[in-house]
Structures are given as structure tokens and as C-alpha cells.
């Protein structure tokens, strides 16, 4: 299997390197051959090649079996014109590779729950998966432009039936191997696009009689994620709603530094990245928590390579490392031992074997 | 002063009646004359007049000095076609009366904080005001329609410079009599409309040198509301972002039944309503918490009638009632006394005198 690594910016370099090491260890352990190729994206790519997404990067990704991304962005590029911003690289690669299905699992680690802003009894047993549509909706619709000489502006939330169907199917597929419940989030009391979304969810649900389905308005969902997060199994929603709700959900369990994500196309190909950002404040210091990137690598094994046992082994090694008290500076594990990125990675590798 | 009361559906009737009584008591106490006129909106208006917003209701509101709304909606009308849904009444009246500025204060009551899903240390001292643009953005833009014979769909997020300027000014005005900090929430790394929004915030901020301003991406704001709600003072944002964030914020303090709102036009005229819904499950039982409606009436006195002292008196009476342990069934006040809607209202009135 050939894997393109896009380290990106800030701690992206460190955490993607850590995830790569874990993948190498898993390959050795299970007798696979993984080859790796590094390419530029984001701010680093702007500095080196004058573009947040060089053609070479796109071409390399298209020839790979999967892509591992670190993180993009940083204050250095914040004042750039919009086509020269690191995020454009991320939006661009999603679109180029047709990665329409963004999966963001949120699960609490019981020995980290004390760091949650929520009370333990509210957040414990939460185990949800947000399935966000990633290449359509409000973030990609056209027109998206100034008008009347700059005195007005429009953005467009557009979907085809096909785009909604494929993401909704993904959510039902995911639910059928989980707790068999889908919450479809929309604003069907106001938006036309949400009405079509709701109709399609009803249609698709007929093919999954074992999965229960519920429709929830996005404002209600924003409340319920906080008041009873454990009542969700799979949430499926439009790009922008998913952006907001998945970030909201990411802080519930008190361990943003632990959350992985997968962005998949129709054929199992995917880009895997931690949910956290590039953390420019601690970049290069060897302090970054590599676990979200490592868990993203585990998602790669599962979703792109069908290597479920291997993925499971990595996930267990991560849990085990935490249970033994190993943690990076971002986590507070009473009685545990604080270690750096490298040591954390080695610990996971040792436990994996 | 002439006030139109729109009881609406479910507990809307009970809580608007309670707020009206408190307004009458305040009028007596401070020697004002308030006249009241009841009109239909929402599901009740659909049942009676075949429209969620009868012309007579609009005309009456246009002739009033302020409008007090209970709540709209209920399962009875959920299957109706979209022009016959209660929410259309609400969206319609906002647009008809040009109520572009929705103010939603969120403040914790220290003896109710134990009911918050958040840890006390996270949520205490939170006191924020969400200023949501209410008549533009994604919920009102055109086109909003099916296309290609139903195989695709668009909604539109549209703003004119003028629409953004007036809401942003409102936020700065509000901040200048509060803690002098504005957080403008957008998605300027993706949306054109957010870029214009951000530019206008920068321009307007020059007229308020004493107010500090910060730009925050909507996904980051959704996180920060949970991890450090007390760091916000005034939040200003687009209609749909404001819908999501204000509902998210409404559950932070554990007392959704306490939250008022005001929707204002350019000249101080406004519609005042509790943030909670019509709660059809307890409608007509006399159990509803009237405090959010009563606090909405206080906002009316302040924002539409300039009666600051009167408003303050109502707010103090509400706090005092809670401090004395009086509460309705939705609130859990250890050692307190649970009372019904009527008794709660009388308690506030007694304390006001
Ligand atoms: C960087 C930004 C464009 C991106 C998004 O909103 O899609 C990010 O917030 C994310 O959620 O992956
Ligand atoms: C009922 C609905 C249209 C409305 C809105 O989204 O504006 C409500 O959710 C609100 O926030 O007042």
C-alpha cells in the first residue's frame, strides 16, 4: 500500500511523523508493506511553491492508496489573500479527491473525562459519529461573490439529489455496524435544501429497516449535544452544519487532542487527519499529542485497507498507553507520567507489539 | 403605550398572560397606562383563520408600540405544507416588522447553576448577549428552490452592506453599555459573505474605540461557548449562525426556561418572546415557567419604552423570587417550593411592589 503523507504546518509535521512510525510498526507486526511519500500542503506549500495545493501534491494523492494529513494553517498566512491561504489547500484536496464523506468519531476516554467542561454524568458513555457532507453545501456552492460594486454579497447552499443520497447512505452503513440509530440534522422548517435532505433520508432509510432514524433541527441538535450527548449514535448533516456540530462535539469529552477523522470518497479511498489544528504555539517543541494522528492512521487501516484487526490493535495500544498513565502536556492525567511526542509514540508502538 | 399580545400555541397562552399581568402591575406601580390587544399567530391562527400570520395580526402589530409573543408550534401542525406551518408566522412577522436585531442575553442564576450540564467552575460568571441578524442571511435569501425537476436544490445566503452595518452597530451599542467587548462570529476562511461581514465589523469598530473587537470562526465559537462561556460579552453574527449558537448558549446555564429575547427594528420598536418553545406536552396544565416571558416583558420596557427602572424592578423581582426558593416544575431548586404558573406570577408581582 502506498501512502502519501502531507505533514502541513505547525505540529502537523510532528504528529504525522508519529503516525507514520506507528503505521510502519503495524506493517512489520502484520507483515504488510507500506510505502510512504511526502508532499506539501498548506502554509508550507505556499512558502515553498507559491500555492497551498501544488499540482504535484494532487497528482501524488491521486496515485496513492490513502493520504495522511497533519494539520494546516497558522498566523503567518492569516493575512494572505484568500487563494493563498492554507485552508484553501484543505478545501481543494477534498474537492479534487471527491472526499465527500467526513467521519468524525467522538468517544470519551474514561480516565480523561475529568477534563471535560461537562459533568461526568452528562458526558460519560458518549460514543457518537458525526458524518459530515464535505464537498457540497454552503461551503462549495456558487455563486459565492460580491455584487453591486461590493455593496452586497451572496453565498450558495446547493445540493444535487445524488450528493445527498451518497452521504446519507454512508451514515446508514456506519450506523448498521454501530448502535443502529441515525440522527439526521437539518433546518427543514426554513431551508428548501433541508426539505429535500429530509425526504432523501426517509427514502434511504427504507433500505435499512434495522436502523432507526430521527430528524432533528440544527438548533435543537446544538443544544442536545450538550445536554445529552450519549443519546446520539450517528449524526448525518450538511457541510456547514457538520462543521459547527463536529467542533462543538469535539470539546465534550475533554480530549480534543485525541480525536481522529476520515474523509472518504466513493471507493474507500480516503484522507485521514487529526481534528485538532496546527497549534503554532507549540510547534517544533516535541510536545504535541500524536494520538489523534495515530488514531487517524488506525481509521485508514480500517476504512481504506480493510485491516480491521490491525486498526483495532492500534486503538487498543492507545487506550492502554493512557491507562498506564502516559500522556502529553495537553492532557491532565492525575498520577500519570507526562512524556513528549516521541516517547508517547514509542509507548504506543511497544504496546502494539 | 399600546401592546399587542400574540399568545400563539401551547404554553404560549399561559406565559404571555403571566407577562401581561406583570406589565399591568408595573404600570400601576409606576403610573403608566398600558393597553393590550390580543391577536392570533402560529398554529392557533392556522386553525382559526387558515393562515399562520393573518393580515389583521400584521396590521395590529404595525399600529402597536410593542409586541409580546408567547410561543408558536406543535406536533399538530408538523405535517402541514410549509406555508401552513406555525413557524412561517414567526418568520413572517419578523420580516413584516423589519425586526432585524435579535438580542438574546444568557446569564446564569447562581442558585440554578447546579442544573447546568457544565461544571460550575466552567459556567459561573457567564453573562453574554447574542446579537443575531434576524431578517437576512441564509434563512431569507433567494433563490431558495428545487431545480432540475426536483433533482437539485439551492438556498442563498445574501446580505447587503446596509443589513450587515445596522446589526453590527447594534452589537457595538450593546457592548458599550456592557463589558465593552464584541466577538464577531463568521466563517471568513470559506464564505464570501463572511469576508464582507468581517470588513464591515472592522469599519464600524472605528466608531467605538472603547470597545474591543475579536473575530472568531463559527466552528471555534461553537467550541469556546462550551469551554469558556464566561469569556464572551457580546457576540454578533449572521442569522443561521446566530440560531445555532444562541440555542447552544441557551442550555449552558441550566435554565432555558428563564431566557428572554427581543427582536428589534431600527426605531426601538420590538417583539419580545421567551427563548423556549410551546411545550405542547404541558400546555394548559398551569405548570409552565412564566419567568422567561416575564423577563421578555422587562426587555420591552427597557428597549421599546426606555423604562429602565421599571425593567430593573421586574428583573430584581424575578431574582428575588428564585432566591426565596419559588420555582416551577422545570427548575430544580433544592429546598425550594414548587409552585404553578399563576402562583409564580403572583410572587413576582408581590415582590415588584
Ligand atoms: C479549515 C476549514 C476550511 C475546515 C472546514 O471548515 O471545513 C475546518 O474547519 C474543518 O472542519 O476541517
Ligand atoms: C422557528 C424557527 C424558524 C426560529 C428560527 O430559527 O429563527 C427559531 O428556531 C428561533 O430561533 O427563533
From TrEMBL, chains A, B:
Substrate binds at residues 94, 104, 132, 219. This is 3-isopropylmalate dehydrogenase. GO terms for cellular component: cytosol. Its cofactor is Mn(2+); Mg(2+). Keywords: Amino-acid biosynthesis, Branched-chain amino acid biosynthesis, Cytoplasm, Leucine biosynthesis, Magnesium, Manganese, Metal-binding, NAD, Oxidoreductase. It comes from Alkalicoccus luteus. Residues 2-348 form the Isopropylmalate dehydrogenase-like domain. Mg(2+) binds at residues 219, 243, 247. Belongs to the isocitrate and isopropylmalate dehydrogenases family. LeuB type 1 subfamily. Catalyzes the oxidation of 3-carboxy-2-hydroxy-4-methylpentanoate (3-isopropylmalate) to 3-carboxy-4-methyl-2-oxopentanoate. The product decarboxylates to 4-methyl-2 oxopentanoate. Signal peptide: none annotated. The keyword Magnesium applies. One of its GO terms (molecular function) is magnesium ion binding. The record marks 139, 187 as: Important for catalysis. It is found in: Cytoplasm.
Amino acid at each position: 500500500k502506498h501512502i502519501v503523507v502531507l505533514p502541513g504546518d505547525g505540529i502537523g509535521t510532528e504528529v504525522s511523523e508519529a503516525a507514520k512510525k506507528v503505521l510502519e510498526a503495524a506493517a512489520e507486526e502484520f507483515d504488510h508493506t507500506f510505502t510512504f511519500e511526502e508532499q506539501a500542503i498548506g502554509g508550507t506549500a505556499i512558502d515553498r511553491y507559491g500555492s497551498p495545493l501544488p499540482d504535484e501534491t494532487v497528482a501524488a494523492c491521486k496515485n496513492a492508496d490513502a493520504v495522511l494529513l497533519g494539520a494546516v494553517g497558522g498566523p503567518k498566512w492569516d493575512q494572505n489573500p484568500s487563494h493563498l491561504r492554507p485552508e484553501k489547500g484543505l478545501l481543494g484536496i477534498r474537492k479534487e479527491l471527491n472526499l465527500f464523506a467526513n467521519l468524525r468519531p467522538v468517544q470519551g476516554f474514561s480516565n480523561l473525562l475529568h477534563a471535560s467542561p461537562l459533568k461526568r454524568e452528562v458526558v460519560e458513555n458518549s460514543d457518537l459519529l458525526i458524518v459530515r457532507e464535505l464537498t457540497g453545501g454552503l461551503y462549495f456552492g456558487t455563486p459565492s461573490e460580491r455584487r453591486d460594486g461590493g455593496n452586497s454579497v451572496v453565498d450558495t447552499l446547493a445540493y444535487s439529489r445524488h450528493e445527498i443520497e451518497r452521504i446519507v447512505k454512508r451514515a446508514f452503513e456506519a450506523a448498521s455496524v454501530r448502535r443502529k440509530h441515525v440522527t439526521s440534522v437539518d433546518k427543514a422548517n426554513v431551508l428548501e435544501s433541508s426539505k429535500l435532505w429530509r425526504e432523501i433520508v426517509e427514502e434511504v432509510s427504507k433500505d435499512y429497516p434495522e436502523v432507526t432514524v430521527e430528524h432533528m433541527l440544527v438548533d435543537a441538535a446544538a443544544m442536545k449535544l450538550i445536554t445529552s450527548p450519549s443519546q446520539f449514535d450517528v449524526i448525518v448533516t450538511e457541510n456547514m452544519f457538520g462543521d459547527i456540530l463536529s467542533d462543538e462535539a469535539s470539546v465534550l469529552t475533554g480530549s480534543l487532542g485525541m480525536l481522529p477523522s476520515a474523509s472518504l470518497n466513493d471507493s474507500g479511498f480516503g484522507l485521514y487527519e487529526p481534528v485538532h489544528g496546527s497549534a503554532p504555539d507549540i510547534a517544533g517543541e516535541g510536545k504535541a499529542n500524536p494520538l489523534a494522528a495515530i488514531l487517524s492512521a488506525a481509521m485508514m487501516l480500517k476504512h481504506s485497507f480493510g485491516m480491521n484487526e490491525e486498526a483495532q490493535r492500534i486503538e487498543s495500544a492507545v487506550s492502554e498507553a493512557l491507562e498506564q498513565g502516559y500522556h502529553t502536556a495537553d492532557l491532565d492525567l492525575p498520577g500519570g507520567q507526562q512524556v513528549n511526542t516521541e516517547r508517547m509514540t514509542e509507548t504506543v508502538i511497544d504496546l502494539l507489539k
